Amino acid sequence: MILARKGQTNQKKSTMSFESDKRFNDFKHFPRGLRRSGEFTVAEADSLEKYGTAMLALYQGTQTPRDDVESAFVEQVKSGAAGANPHAKVWFKYLKVIGPKRVHRLCTVAGGANEEASGGGFEGGSGSDESID
pTM of this prediction? Predict the structure, then answer.
């Protein structure tokens, strides 16, 4: 029996999907880290930290897929449907969180749908241009 030295294994290193030497961090959008952002569950943050660098490279097209799992991820990202792939689901959630925020207004905007329906718009309405004295 041959014993491996500390830090070495007897088995060959198999290629795993989304393998990367570098942990993924996005300090621009998450200055305190993915785990502390409150946007992701612990499992989602672990998945992004572990596989996010490879996911980003595949998403940007700087890395070619190495196996069927990565190819399926690329196809799902291109189509916009995550399906049952947990990697694609986490990646879409990440993209949604860093994407532009929706603004909810408490007032209507001039020329909005409500004014057009009621006929009370600024242009061409039934009111006159005369000033009230």
Answer: 0.63
